[in-house]
Amino acid sequence: MGTINxxxxxxxxxxxxxxxxxxxxxxxxxxxxxxxxxxxxxxRLEEKNTFKKIQREIEGISAKMLTKELKDMxxxxxxxxxxxxxxxxxxxYAITNYGLNVLPLAENLVQWGLDHxxxxxx
Amino acid sequence: MGTINxxxxxxxxxxxxxxxxxxxxxxxxxxxxxxxxxxxxxxRLEEKNTFKKIQREIEGISAKMLTKELKDMxxxxxxxxxxxxxxxxxxxYAITNYGLNVLPLAENLVQWGLDHxxxxxx
DNA sequence: CTGTATCCACTGGGATACTG
DNA sequence: CAGTATCCCAGTGGATACAG
Lengths: 122, 122
Prior knowledge:
2 copies of one chain form a homodimer.
Chain A: H1 8-29, H2 34-42, E1 49-50, H3 51-57, H4 63-75, E2 79-84, E3 90-95, H5 97-100, H6 103-121
Antiparallel strand pairs in A: 1-3, 2-3
The structure holds a DNA duplex (20 and 20 nucleotides).
């Protein structure tokens, strides 16, 4: 939000930039399944994570959503998509190094969520 | 997502808990205006933040959304609401200490958003 | 001033069926 | 297997008018 500043316009500009940045983050990471998928893939670096396998193991996700979320995340360089020319074809998804570096942020959200639930329960 | 574990059920349980926690966080903090409001209030600890003032200064928010977001955040103990019995009444909102402690998380999101935008631009 | 109520357009996301 | 296409409904959120 910027620091309090005599020059309101400068502060407003800074403020807006930061708010946009925050919204960017939430848009890119806040999707219904995105962080879940990221953590799923981060725990299966050595496995072949095919579309079907992911859908089977992530309870409740539809093909439509899985397609969409994976596509979004690929565009944001968080995951990679590899088409294997078997017959019929298979596709393998993996988290990228860039994707790995957002995991700490995800962990913070998990921790805060746990703490918050405990706090609210009282 | 829990660590890789021989016992699939234990891992699944842990996994679900953590995913729930992550969703909790995103639900509580990911609203369209919530983090924005939190940062707005954190920069105005000494001011009287009335409903109208907030609405005037946060560009684009409707009364309906402002009401809803403030109510949500009050329920989550992130902000406080004080009715002042002037005539007509005024209401002042302020961030709580608990609310203040989520700001670092918000800052991380801002920073990641900035970095990510830079990364994607290339 | 501080909201609520209502209407309404748009979107997110599930179910299902279908394609390459 | 890996998606796409379609339908459809519930929930978001804006605009406007109204109420305490």
